[in-house]
Amino acid sequence: MKKIVVMGSTGSIGTQTLDIVRSHRDELSVMALTACSSVDLIEKQAREFSPRIVAMYDPKSAGELSDRLSDTDIKVLGGMEGLIEAAAMEEADTVVTAMVGMIGIRPTIAAIEAGHDIALANKETLVCAGHIIMPLAKKNGVSIYPVDSEHSAIFQSLDSEDHADVERIILTASGGPFRKCSYEELESMTAADALKHPNWNMGAKITVDSATLVNKGLEVMEACHLFGVGLDDIEVVIHPQSIIHSAVMFHDGAIMAQMGSPDMKLPIQYALFYPRRPYLATKRVDLIELGSLTFERPDPEKFKGFKYAYEAARCGGIMPTVFNAANERAVALFLEGKIGFTDIARLIRHAMDSVPEVSDPDVECILDAADAAIAAVDKMCENPGEKN
Fold first, then answer.
1. Mean pLDDT over all residues of the chain?
2. Residues with Cβ < 8 Å from 228, sequence gap 6 or more?
3. Torsions phi, psi of 91, nearest 5?
4. How many other C-beta atoms lie within 10 A of the C-beta of residue 280?
5. What pTM was computed for the model?
6. Which of 3, 47, 116, 359 has the lowest tally of Cβ within 10 angstroms?
7. Residue 383 — very low, low, confident or very high, per pLDDT cuts 50/70/90?
């Protein structure tokens, strides 16, 4: 019986993780659940899976949940301290880090220090703190299994292969809902438009990130840390059908690719059961029915957030954090209808120009830089005439 902690259990990845647990109750046991503030859903999850701990990042929500679960033996915790205690609980084997945003950094570090393997869905952890996380995992003998479909595909393509033989990683992207739009058309796109992803069923924030291609820029940064490759060793390719989830080219010219239906349950289950592949009730790819696969190059001048991601990655240090935090804030404003779609990249650019560089940031410095980036975004929104 593998004992797991699901961090961010009420989000898209978290709920799909629990679907997998339902299908494998004889092999998976939930020891802890965490969320930000979704009291109604996590109460239902807690009553169904009977974890020992439930933690809410929002203290007020934790208080309400504690009252609701007073008829159970479940321990209810609140705040960042509660998330950390859940992630580091002694009984756990694997921690699924499915939180959205930078709140995932400290709990992930705590889980690694406790010796737990990580099923990583919180890309911000590596984007902002990969230089801390990867050495720490190695020091503690902890395995990090990627849950993002693209990184899982790379992981699967590299399995049993010599990493020294890799020539380049081919990171695929669907292109999102605006792949065929002109830049002028992008300026009028609304949140409702951006949330109509053609292939994937994801949370609102990551769906918008897919529409801007910022998500792909973040995945490039994450891949550098996960697989120990340089920025120039990763090629991003638009693949509208989302059947090839990513691939690896080796020095002899061979390409190993992982293919499958666009279903996040596949990489989640693979991370939980590696190296086994138990049955998964997902749509099978029919190659005859599929007919053809197509590929395109991304346009960094149209999707400027993607362009700025590469700039942040090349700068290194604190800049990936600034990029990520500015994007988080800008996407939230966009979803609230306070800014336009192309303003997201403009605000990222402003934050990157505003926050001073730091070459080797620790966790406190990372969190301070994130606050500074958010402040820069908010200040520009208060003075819209300053947008460039």
1. 95
2. 163
3. -75, -15
4. 17
5. 0.93
6. 359
7. confident
Query: What burial class does residue 332 get, using C-beta atoms within 10 Å of its C-beta: 0-12 exposed, 13-18 middle, 19+ buried?
Result: middle
Q: How many domains does the chain have?
A: 3
Question: Is pLDDT of 362 > 90?
Answer: yes
* Containing structural domain, residue 382: 304-386
Q: E-assigned strands of the chain?
A: 2-7, 28-35, 53-56, 75-78, 94-97, 117-120, 144-146, 166-173, 234-238, 244-250, 255-259
Average pLDDT over residues 192-199: 86
**Could you tell me which residues are beta bridge partners of residue 344?**
none
Two tokens at 301?
A: 């001048």
Burial class (CB in 10 A: 0-12, 13-18, 19+), 65: buried
Residue 166, both tokens: 């890799």
pLDDT at 51 over 70: yes
User: Looking at the predicted structure, is the pLDDT value of residue 85 above 90?
Assistant: yes
317: domain CATH number is 1.10.1740.10
